[in-house]
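Quick start: read one record
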Amino acid sequence: MTFLVITFISYGTCAQSVIVNADGTHSTVIDNGTTKTIVNADGTHSTVIDNGTTKTIVNADGTHSTVIDNGTTKTIVNADGAHSTVIDNGTTKTIVNADGTHSTVIDNGTTMTIVNPNGSHSTVKKKKRKNHR
């Protein structure tokens, strides 16, 4: 789930998003520009480091994942070596998960809805950016 969220986070300074997970728990994403901190629902933290067309994800357990941006497609190399692909169709994105299942992300403007392979839904509520100088 974290990988889905990370892929679709808006980039800017000092923005915050709230993720409503399928099980009803909440996670928070704090955008600090080239790094983002994800406070997971269980209190653990993950970090995303933006290196341009590649992003490094330091997972809460210390493992690393990589997101490679190829334009309208992104490849996620998970810590276990499995790969997922994100296909950007504008306001709808299709995720081909490592196990071959599909997820869909629908951008509704102020929120994004993630439809998981089992039919459950998660919602990401986007908040406005604050410019701090």
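Residues 1-13 have pLDDT under 50 and may be disordered.
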